[in-house]
Design goal:
Blueprint lengths: L2 H21 L3 E6 L1 E2 L10 E2 L1 H14 L1 E2 L2 H9 L7 E8 L3 H13 L3 E5 L11 H12 L3 E3 L12 E3 L2 H12 L4 H12 L16 H8 L4 E5 L12 H19 L5 E3 L9 H7 L4 E3 L18 E2 L5 H11 L9
Parallel strand pairs: 1-5, 1-12, 2-3, 4-5, 5-6, 6-9, 10-11
Antiparallel strand pairs: 7-8
């Protein structure tokens, strides 16, 4: 290692020590999506149940595991979060109840699930999952309708790999209004039509949201109605998306919903203020970072978790907590 690298590492260590003294110990918020047997997963959203169980063993050994809403309450109290870890899930997949909850209960680990309410009780998958299935069903060579091409010559698009075809479709659909996205998914399905949601990929149903929250181990938070890019919407459209998801979940649960997660981690200048005005107490991004006493409760950073083995997660958490990788507890 160069001298620059050695001094760079020492500088980071000293900076962490200074931050710890000034702001108190830190916390880390981890973000998951699905827990299930992994098939095609081009966006890396799924973690195997065995891997997830190993992750929970790691987090219990390295810190105090708290629900997201209670972490932020400790920040507001001025005492600092302690070396705490939060487990969160985005989107509201049914496997959060059917698979993840059982593992969370077995390890006595709380969590927060942020639900996109437009998919609740729906027989449609989230658009990115349906796109993955439709591309896979297209077969080799992967042939896509002309709307998914980049040339605009009206000719079908032929690609040699699933990965390339999925990238073209995902990039074309990303950020579109729901109506336009549905039209293009219909074009992608063509004569076959669009099948209902796979059991492995479907969203939660209303009664399952109630079951998920039952007992208090899991907090239910809001994640908008249609999972849009909020920074591309005007203020009123943002308000409708955020308020609509809160109202639907509160109707289902019969209880206040106080936590929010920005879809895709994206937000505009006005978005955190809208979230606060609507009665939420905290909101999280997917911008990587640790939580300190001075963290803005409406811009809480999170770490997106992949199919890492237990040792890889332990090393990352040790680094975020400023510890030696071999020291736990």
């Amino acid at each position: 290692m160069s001298a620059f690298g050695r001094f760079g590492g020492a500088g980071k260590w000293l900076r962490r020590r200074w931050q710890r003294r000034r702001f108190g110990a830190r916390a880390v918020v981890l973000a998951y999506h699905r827990v299930g047997e992994r098939g095609a997963d081009p966006l890396g959203l799924c973690v195997n149940p065995g891997t997830f169980a190993e992750h929970l063993d790691v987090v219990r050994s390295l810190g105090r595991v708290v629900r997201f809403d209670r972490l932020i309450a400790s920040l507001e109290g001025g005492g600092g979060p302690g070396e705490s870890i939060c487990i969160t899930f985005d989107d509201g997949y049914a496997d959060n109840l059917l698979v993840a909850r059982r593992i969370l209960e077995r390890h006595d680990v709380p969590a927060t699930v942020f639900v996109t309410t437009g998919n609740v009780d729906s027989d449609r998958e989230f658009w990115w999952d349906e796109a993955e299935r439709l591309v896979a069903e297209a077969g080799t060579p992967y042939t896509l309708p002309a709307e998914f091409g980049e040339t605009g010559n009206g000719e079908p698009v032929r690609t040699g790999s699933f990965e390339e075809a999925f990238r073209l479709v995902h990039d074309r659909l990303y950020g579109l209004a729901p109506e336009e996205r549905e039209r293009l998914l219909d074009r992608l399905a063509g004569w076959r039509g669009r099948a209902g949601a796979r059991a492995t990929h479907r969203a939660l149903r209303s009664r399952e949201i109630v079951a998920l929250a039952d007992g208090g181990l899991i907090e239910v938070g809001a994640h908008t109605v249609t999972h849009p890019l909020l920074d591309r919407l005007d203020v009123e459209a943002q308000r409708q998306e955020i308020a609509g998801s809160k109202a639907r979940l509160e109707q289902i649960l019969g209880a206040a919903v106080v936590s929010f997660a920005y879809p895709h981690g994206r937000y505009g200048d006005a978005t955190p203020g809208i979230v606060a005005e609507l009665g939420f107490r905290q909101a999280c991004t997917v911008e990587p970072g640790v939580v300190w006493r001075g963290t803005d409760p409406f811009l809480v950073p999170r770490i997106l978790v992949g199919e890492w083995d237990a040792d890889a997660l332990a090393r990352r958490l040790a680094r975020w907590f400023g510890r030696s990788p071999g020291r736990r507890g």
